[in-house]
Amino acid sequence: MLLSVSDLAVARGGVTVLEGMTFGVAAGQALILRGPNGAGKTTLLRTLAGLQPAVAGAVSVPPEAMAYAAHADGIKAVLTVAENLEFWAAVHGTRGIGAALEAMDLVGLRNRRGAHLSAGQKRRLGLARLLVTGRPVWLLDEPTVSLDVASVALFAGVVRGHLAGGGAALIATHVDLGLGEAVVLDLSAFKARAAAGTGAFDEAFG
Ligand SMILES: Nc1ncnc2c1ncn2[C@@H]1O[C@H](COP(=O)(O)OP(=O)(O)OP(=O)(O)O)[C@@H](O)[C@H]1O
Q1: What is the Å distance from ligand 1's center to 40 Cα?
Q2: Is residue 15 within a helix (H) or strand (E), and if so which, with residue range?
Q3: Could you give the number of structural domains in the chain?
Q4: Per-block average pLDDT, block size 10, for the chain (206 residues)?
């Protein structure tokens, strides 16, 4: 397994929302996270990314092995598309942004400032960032929001390429990315008892 999670519990706002999560993701595999709004998909991804501590349990690889694409793209408005990617490449100690520019159809936009990109273009740049991290496990939170049909297909190809290269991905998505080999993890099975009756889960699971 490229990533193994055992008996993991995660919390939001001081309330444990998911517990007893044990699963693995193999090299070349995508795991699709399912669950209604508020189920805890973002909370799980943020915990794996090291942005918040786990309540309990163990994760086999450190956050440094993972690349997280959050709802916000984290683009620097004053930098151009190419400069944003070069900045991230420098942060991650990798070289070369050409493949990332091409993969997400950003070559023609390489000199446009972040502030001047459309929502979908920003999203494409945020996803191109994954490629320059060089990290094996991708954590993707609704990655196709703002993308048009052509860009969704482009991104699905990028994910397939990452998997074919021995990477893995955990993806919270309601969109079918056409990843035939993907395994679905239904988070309803891990609803924390502590969350029942607090309001945090009532909306999600009734
Ligand atoms: N600061 C907070 N304090 C209390 N509860 C919170 C806080 N932030 C989030 N929550 C609750 O934690 C639960 C999990 O939220 P999370 O964002 O992980 O869900 P999600 O499955 O990603 O939802 P969505 O599909 O809507 O993005 C939700 O019920 C949410 O209302």
Answers
A1: 6
A2: strand 15-25
A3: 1
A4: 97 95 96 94 97 96 94 92 97 94 97 96 95 96 93 93 96 85 92 67 54
Largest CA distance in the chain: 52
- This prediction has a pTM of 0.91
> In which domain, by residue range, is 199 found?
3-205
| CA of residue 102 to ligand 1 center, whole Å | 35
How close is the Cα of 82 to the center of ligand 1, in Å?
34
Q: Across-strand partners of 32?
A: 171, 184
Taking a C-beta distance cutoff of 8 angstroms, is the pair 167, 27 a contact? yes
Helices (H), 144-199: 149-164
Residues with CB under 6 A from ligand 1: 12-13, 15, 17, 35, 37-43, 200-201, 204
**Residue 84 sits in a domain of what CATH number?**
3.40.50.300
**Quick one: how far is CA 111 from the chain centroid?**
26
Ligand 1: residue whose CA is nearest its atom 18: 40
In the reported structure, the alpha carbon of residue 12 is separated from the centroid of ligand 1 by a whole-number distance in angstroms of 7
